[in-house]
Automatic annotation (TrEMBL), chain A:
This is (Fe-S)-binding protein. The keyword Mitochondrion does not apply. Keywords: 4Fe-4S, Electron transport, Iron, Iron-sulfur, Metal-binding, Transport. The keyword rRNA processing does not apply. Residues 1-18 have a biased composition (Basic and acidic residues). SUPFAM superfamilies: alpha-helical ferredoxin. Residues 83-112, 152-181 form the 4Fe-4S ferredoxin-type domain. Residues 1-28 are annotated as: Disordered. GO terms for molecular function: 4 iron, 4 sulfur cluster binding; metal ion binding; oxidoreductase activity. PROSITE patterns: 4FE4S_FER_1 (PS00198), 4FE4S_FER_2 (PS51379). It holds the Pfam family CCG. InterPro entries: 4Fe4S_Fe-S-bd, 4Fe4S_Fe_S_CS, Cys_rich_dom, Helical_ferredxn.
From TrEMBL, chain B:
The chain crosses the membrane at residues 6-25, 32-55, 128-148, 173-192, 212-229, 256-274. Residues 124-281 form the NarG-like domain. One of its GO terms (cellular component) is plasma membrane. The keyword Ligase does not apply. This is Menaquinol oxidoreductase. It comes from Desulfoglaeba alkanexedens ALDC.
């Protein structure tokens, strides 16, 4: 694995384009800036084409013989299926408003990371093969032929875009690079050019229900482990159920929360909250993944993986589905699920059994976001909260790209934060809400061989955190996304040491005064609560 | 292509067009061709081309509801919903489009990256592009409306009104219309921006410079004709009105520069549907802007939704049944 340069070396970023025109600047597969190619065993189980051992850094990519026709046919098919794709090929005026909005461009200075140029990688081929002017005027119309080098360029840059959609906020025509990247990745997948980290996650999700490949018995064991942890901290034993028919609510969260710190604390938070309000809910080991790595592969794969949610809700006979803190999971639920796998007419419109609130905004999809659910609980005074238990945490909030720009969940998490902690500070205005910056590793790019690019792509976010860290002493970065929770700890260590990462429901659980709890001296991480430092030491001495 | 080549190519292309018009109408005396045939052909190409282009786009469906949300969603009744930036009804989406089309809302958000050592990153306010763009478009609109006086008789009141506003300075004979000057200034800004900002010149194609030069040529010939190289305005109107009423006539002695002006305008119209200029029509169809974000409230239909292979619960249980039973997890089929 490539060594990541030191922060001050990495920060020497030149935003001036090179002398050679972009069409004549080949891609360099430098370790640390690209992801490994998909292994055969990870694409065979889901019937994807051209399984083989290959390495993007090699000269020969072992493309299938008819790769060019496959790609061009694929483009034609998708031009006919997606108005967005067709339109975005035609109407860009190259005004450049998007150029410096991309986190990868800011962190790398590579001009092909300007959203406009990332799209031109595809448009140049579109002009060459699908436009009369392009066929006539060739390079004078900005057209170029589809070659293996173009495929390599696509692979490099479409897996160097996290589909965060920040550029589309600023584009005067709403051109959404995510649409182009999604199509680009679909086309690459058709000739077997997937990255291994996504392919592995997809294969796992398909088979075991979650991207980590946790089998049902292990999934249960892992959650039971956190039941013990909760008891240790609070003295209260929560009792989760699994695959239980007749439960009122099916709860689905990204499996990252089950597996790795600090997501696991958020998982404990969910369970404590549900126990406290007496929620009749069940986990599913079959639909055990909220995240959808199909979104990073193709529309079809997204649908194949997403199908489990409704199928399981139907099988278990629940009334509605509650979803955990996750980013792109919610893009899929909000913008795709009902269209792809609906109608969910076997479910009821979500209604909070505690407050009676009917979630009208989920009338058709029948799936409610947990921050909507919890904000409603707090608003109705159903939770006994002591925010001072979080007093040692100076918190800022990172809007995850998808909840912000594909849903508009902006106020709900903030409302919760203001109720569960006393020290909450916003990052600068141009870096939050709909203008939020990606964590640097969304869309399945959170793999270790890609670390340099992750640090580059995460720089704009980290820089804004650093601002509030220096100004207000912020030491906790809250978010509602499992990829964030996995990606931010190394990013913070690299750019802003001294800032930890948390989900919202971890903070909720810290503040939550549970019925029958023992005197709590630590938070969920076994760190002393404010004012309890001495008692902790005494306990340790005993 | 390197930036200089792109500029030179476009400049030469416009230069050739100018020569064609001057030689054709001025020297070869092909006034009927340049005064009647070309404008009609250009208008036909424009209308058919734009309709064709819009139909071409519209033939592809919008399978998913993918608005870019730029404000608070509609959720709980006590949380203030941002109806303009995150519409949930058609009416709200229309309002969002109105802001976009008339005021260039998204471009108004523009910021400029300031990257300093440290690293210390700032995002400074950057409204110049928005200003340049909006001034350019509105100046063009005013010029366009003013020109309707050449195609109408009697001239409708609103054209007089626009002219009075446009010429409110009351200087010069004939009095100075601000819109023409502003149009050229805005074009100059957009051109200079394109060549001086390194990233922008890096991405620019001949297709970006050509319309700038072409419109500059149109503006310049228009201004020359109005203030400096006099043409027979009465005769010119006779020709344009003839075109508008489908009784084309070509009066003698209008002056070559008129034909040059008319030819460049014709080229712009004919070029329009095949170039990036179709953004004028395309902006209305953009699915990230013109759709309400209500796909959790109302099911959006994908016309080509097809069944896919899924891993069913039964298959899943089949594989893991023993382990599930051992772990005390409920199963459908006990053996």
């Amino acid at each position: 694995m490539a060594k990541v340069p030191k922060p001050d070396e990495l920060a020497q970023i030149e935003h001036r384009p090179p002398e050679s025109p972009w069409t004549e600047t080949p891609v360099e597969f430098r370790p640390g800036t690209y992801c490994y190619g998909a292994k055969p065993q990870n694409i065979e189980p889901v019937d994807m084409p051209n399984p083989r051992d290959w390495n993007p850094a090699d000269e020969d990519w072992k493309l299938p013989e008819n790769w060019k026709q496959t790609v061009l046919d694929g483009m034609k098919l998708r031009l006919n299926r997606f108005r967005s794709f067709k339109l975005f090929m035609d109407i860009c005026v190259r005004c450049g408003a998007c150029a410096d909005k991309c986190h990868y461009f800011i962190g790398s200075g590579d001009p092909k990371n300007m959203p406009v140029l990332r799209a031109e990688l595809m448009r140049s081929v579109y002009r060459n093969d699908f436009s009369t002017f392009g066929k006539m005027l060739k390079k004078y119309a900005g057209a170029r032929e589809l070659t293996e080098d173009v495929i390599k360029e696509w692979f490099y840059y479409y897996f160097q875009c996290t589909e965060c959609r920040r550029c589309s906020v600023f584009c005067p025509y709403g051109i959404d690079t995510a649409e182009i990247t999604i199509i680009g990745r679909e086309l690459l997948n058709e000739i077997g050019c997937q990255i291994d980290w996504i392919a592995g996650a997809v294969a796992n999700c398909y088979r075991t229900g979650n991207h980590l490949g946790i089998q049902p018995h292990a999934f249960r064991d892992m959650i039971e482990f956190f039941v013990d942890e909760i008891e240790e901290v609070t003295g209260v034993r929560v009792e989760p159920t699994f695959n239980r028919k007749g439960a009122e609510i099916l709860f689905i969260t990204p499996s990252g929360d089950v597996f790795a710190d600090p997501g696991t604390y958020t998982l404990m938070g969910y369970m404590m909250l549900f126990h406290e309000i007496g929620l009749d809910y069940t986990w599913s080991t079959y639909a055990s993944e909220g995240g959808n790595f199909g979104l990073f592969t193709s529309h079809e794969m997204m649908k194949r993986l997403n199908a489990k949610m409704y199928a399981e809700a139907k099988r278990l006979g629940v009334k509605w589905i509650l979803g955990g803190e996750c980013g792109h999971m919610w893009r899929v639920i909000n913008q795709y699920m009902d269209t792809m796998n609906g109608p969910a007419d076997f479910l009821e419109v979500p209604k909070s059994p505690i407050t009676g609130t009917v979630f009208e905004n989920a009338r058709s999809t029948k799936m409610t976001h947990i921050v909507e659910f919890t904000a409603d609980l707090i608003r109705h005074g159903k939770l006994n909260l002591d925010p001072s238990r979080n007093d040692n945490k100076i918190v800022t909030f990172h809007d995850s790209c998808n909840p912000a720009r594909a849903m508009g969940i902006l106020e709900e998490p903030r409302y919760i934060l203001r109720n569960v902690c006393n020290h909450f500070y916003e990052m600068p205005e141009n870096t939050i809400r709909e203008r939020t910056f990606c964590c640097g590793a969304g869309t399945g790019l959170n793999t270790d061989e890609y670390m340099e690019m992750r640090m580059r792509g995460g720089l704009p976010r980290a820089n804004a955190v650093k601002y509030v860290h220096d100004k207000f002493g912020v030491n906790m970065l809250a978010n509602i996304c499992a990829i964030d929770r996995a990606v931010f700890p190394p990013l913070m260590d690299y750019w802003v040491p001294g800032v930890d990462v948390t989900g919202i429901h971890e903070l909720v659980a810290n503040a939550l005064i549970m019925k029958g709890e023992k005197k709590r001296t630590t938070d969920l991480r076994y760190e002393p609560l404010p004012g309890m430092e001495e008692e902790e030491e005494e306990e340790e001495d005993v | 292509m390197n930036p200089l080549n792109a500029i030179v190519f476009s400049l030469v292309a416009v230069g050739v067009l100018v020569l064609v018009a001057l030689l054709g109408a001025g020297v070869a005396d092909l006034q009927y061709f340049f005064g009647v045939v070309v404008p009609y052909a250009a208008a036909a190409v424009f209308f058919i081309g734009v309709v064709y282009r819009v139909v071409y786009w519209a033939r592809s469906p919008v399978p998913f509801r993918i608005p870019t949300t730029c404000g608070q969603q509609k959720s709980l009744p006590w949380i203030k919903h941002d109806a303009l930036e995150n519409p949930v009804t058609k009416g709200q989406a229309v309002m969002r489009m109105v802001l976009e089309v008339l005021l260039f809302r998204s471009l108004f958000r523009n910021t400029r990256l300031e990257f300093r050592r440290g690293p210390k990153i700032d995002y400074a306010s950057a409204k110049w592009l928005w200003l340049g763009a909006i001034v350019f478009h509105y100046a063009f609109l005013v010029v366009f409306i003013r020109h309707l006086r050449f195609f109408t008789e009697p001239i409708p009141g609103f054209i007089h009104l626009i002219e009075n506003v446009d010429g409110f300075l009351e200087v010069g004979v004939p009095r100075l219309f601000l819109s023409g000057v502003v149009l050229l200034a805005a074009l100059t800004y957009l051109f200079l921006r394109r060549v001086t900002v390194p990233q922008l010149s890096y991405i620019s194609l001949p297709a970006d410079y050509f319309p700038l030069f072409l419109i500059f040529g149109i503006g310049l010939t228009g201004i020359l004709m109005r203030y400096f190289i006099k043409v027979d305005v009465v005769a010119a109107k006779e020709l344009t009105l003839g075109l508008a009423t489908f009784h084309p006539t070509v009066p003698e002695g209008i002056g070559s520069i008129f034909y040059l002006h008319l030819f460049l305008v014709s080229v712009l119209f004919a070029y329009f549907p095949f170039s990036k200029l179709v953004h004028m029509a395309g902006v209305f169809l953009s699915p990230t802007r013109n759709l309400p974000n209500n796909s959790r409230i109302q099911r959006h239909i994908n016309p080509w939704n097809y069944p896919v292979k899924v891993h069913t619960y039964e298959e899943y249980e089949e594989e893991f049944r023993e382990k599930m039973i051992e772990a005390g997890l409920p199963v459908e089929k006990k053996e």
